[in-house]
Amino acid sequence: MIQPLLTNSNIPHHIAIAGAGLLGRLLAWQLLNAGCKVTLFEAGSFTANSQKDLRGAAFTAAGMIAPLSEAVVSDEGVYRMGQFALQQWPQWLAKLNQPEPLFFQHGSLVIAHSQDISELEQFERELQFVIPQCKTWKRINQQQIQELEPDLNPHFTQGLFLAEEGHVHNRELLTALGKEIITLGAVVREHAPVEVSNYKINSEYTEENFDLVIDCRGLGAKTQHPQLRGVRGETLHVQTQEIHLKRPVRLMHPRYQLYIVPKPNHCFIIGATQIESEDTSPISLQSTLELSSALYTLSPAFAEARIIEMDTNLRPAFMDNLPRVNIQAGLITANGLFRHGYLLAPAIVENILAHILQTGEKNFNDLLRHHNNILR
Amino acid sequence: MSHTLPEKNFTLYGETFSSRFLLGTALYTSPQIMRDAITQSRCEIVTLGLRRQNPADRAGDAIWQFIQESGCRLLPNTAGCKSVKEAVTLAEMSREIFNTDWIKLEVIGDDYNLQPDPFGLVEASDILIKKGFKVLPYCTDDLILCKRLVDVGCEVLMPWGAPIGTGQGLLNRYSLRTLRERLANMPMIIDAGLGAPSQAAEAMEMGFDGILLNTAVAKAHNPPLMAEAFADAIDAGRKAYKAGLMQKRQTASPSTPTIGQPFWHQ
Lengths: 376, 266
Prior knowledge:
Largest sheet of chain A: 8 strands, mixed
Helix content of chain B: 25-40%
Order of helices and strands of chain B: EEEHEHEHEHEHEHEHEHH
Order of helices and strands of chain A: EHEHEHHEEHEHEEHEEEEEEEEEHEEEHH
CATH class of the largest domain in chain A: Alpha Beta
Structural class of chain B: alpha/beta
Shape of chain B: globular
Radius of gyration of chain B: 20 Å
Largest interface: A-B, 24 and 19 residues
Distance between the termini of chain B: 38 Å
Oligomer: heterodimer
Structural class of chain A: alpha+beta
Strand content of chain A: 25-35%
Distance between the termini of chain A: 31 Å
Radius of gyration of chain A: 21 Å
Strand order of the largest sheet of chain A: 6-7-5-15-16-17-14-18
CATH topology of the largest domain in chain A: FAD/NAD(P)-binding domain
Number of helices of chain B: 9
Number of strands of chain A: 20
Shape of chain A: globular
Strand content of chain B: 5-15%
Helix content of chain A: 25-40%
Strand order of the largest sheet of chain B: 5-4-3-10-9
Number of strands of chain B: 10
């Protein structure tokens, strides 16, 4: 896909990337493949996997690639970028050569209890409003729900099947990307909080110059984006061998919309609350009640599942909850992926690479740079 | 005579407003859409809840500031509080954070339909008014409950049209009419349960003084446009009330004589 282009002297040779979350890792990987030299700065640990570590929202995310469900709460542009993600992820993962598959496209289910059917209808109406041309979803009945997911509680009588949607085993993916970046020779500086400016990275003691700086620090860049805010999300990780789910299941409820995503080793992530607060303290009892009761109603067999992790993190978001890419001489910033990290990252990476490697592709420019207040 | 600007004669706790529309700030798909809806609603008061935002640590500052920039008066609420103690504590915290003694008081009696707990509501109103708060209670349409709230010092009442978020409209017109007649001088705002602008207009035609809602705007496909629709309906309903609705009649009576029919047959 991307040819080594370093014969072209206009392409920056040594690139600094601030933030080793999903965007930072994907960009580092692609730029290394293109022949650039990459130095990656991470405020926390590069191999973060424990909850105590400072780590990006991508570690806490459930890794759904859900363009329809997310279009319902955003807009048609998010759907378009999401469709690109569904093409891009399998191609990327094929190149990562993992022993086990990490990307799945088995669709997703949206269900509601019979007393909350109006929530399902609201979701359906919004789909028709936002993406009227989309024909890849359908209303399904009790029997069809059971055929798709036999372990779900049979009392769900109506649902929607969103055939396009997929999910990714995100933590395994982040680890695999991390290893690949190291193999390809990136310089990784962990526990290195930095400030960024055009062509420059400032850490506590030093200032370093680069041909280009890419800032994808998420909330770490808050001081440089006054409109950036954190939106609290809380998740539970449970483990049980009694239940098998092939695809993500979303439960609609008047007060909250929660989803459960199957993960390796008989694990499931149930999430996520969405609270307008930059509070990173542990999960609240109220939230554990909501998450676990939703889980229990999906199938009573979850009662004996073990809670193996409770996670809290902040989603970086602008006030319109849409992502932004800002390109200046010597500095590119990408931020505000909100709750759509795995859905939007491929489009954002494509857009940034097209600019750096001058491939002429201008995909998604209209979606990522139409915000006047950040344009120069 | 002006035919566009509403008069500035809506008085709550001694303050006067021209808009009779109060809007909630929850459930929007983004803060920007919420702000656009506030602008289009022409409202001067917005409510906001902070129960789950860890207010003690000011963790909601970013969004509160964004709401504040709308220029509207902030009316903090106690949504999510199920006991008198929780509601009183949250009201005190809200007063400190937002520097206002106005509180939209909610004491929730049922978790599923968010129905107010009338007993807890009277008790919490009493406590808060004694502490100097100006309480705007979210209540049911029960006359006796409303009288008790007036007894403890509430100067405005906010009876529901229907349970929060249902969009059912005015479920019990008889009770609401009784309330309006019996507490004729008490400012009353229909709070919750409205789904369509026509329902808001109807409440205003009945003589209610204002409308507070959230879900009907936030869950519209285009919240700013729906906010404008509600604002227009509320203005229309208010004008209709002031103009005096004609009395309904049992039989049709043409307003002009029917040509070709002798008048003694009309």
